[in-house]
Amino acid sequence: MAYQWDSSLETGHKQIDHQHKQLIAALNNLIKASQSGKGCTEIFRTLDFLTGYTIKHFTDEEALQITYGYPDYLMHRQIHEDFKKTVGALTVRLHNEGPHRALVEEVITSVESWLLNHIKGDDFRMATFVKAHECL
Fold first, then answer.
1. What are the b/e assignments for 26-63, b being 16+ CB within 10 Å?
2. Domain CATH code at residue 75
3. How far out from the chain centre does Cα 17 lie?
4. Helices and strands counted in the chain (H then E)
5. Cβ atoms of residues 46 and 31 within 8 Å
6. How far apart are CA 117 and CA 98, in angstroms?
7. pTM, to two decimals
8. Which residues in 19-104 belong to E strands, given as ranges?
9. How many domains would you assign to the chain?
10. d(Cα 131, Cα 47) in Å, to the nearest integer?
């Protein structure tokens, strides 16, 4: 199943939303590759992307939270750290085990869960707070 950008994923911050769109594109690329029998090749690109994404995107998002005094910053940061560990563990497994279908599916499931739970939940709450505290 491919994912489409919709308003439930929007934070209202151009940079953050752009980065979320990149995550959806990476997930869709892996899903499409998996469906066509090329998931074991695409997983390398996907995990490489996720490693860079978690560093850049989380840094940008956390800076926004600090700027606006987001009260759940520490909890949100811990969730980010946990996902970084997940991506790191998946990357280690890829290098230790080599690419295989079960690992491709695990990466897909991890990113899907991230989209549905973190972006639509935690990020939406954070964005609502930031919007309410911005000077227009």
1. bbebbbebbeeeebbebbeebbebbeebbeebbeebbe
2. 1.20.120.50
3. 11
4. 5, 0
5. no
6. 29
7. 0.91
8. none
9. 1
10. 32
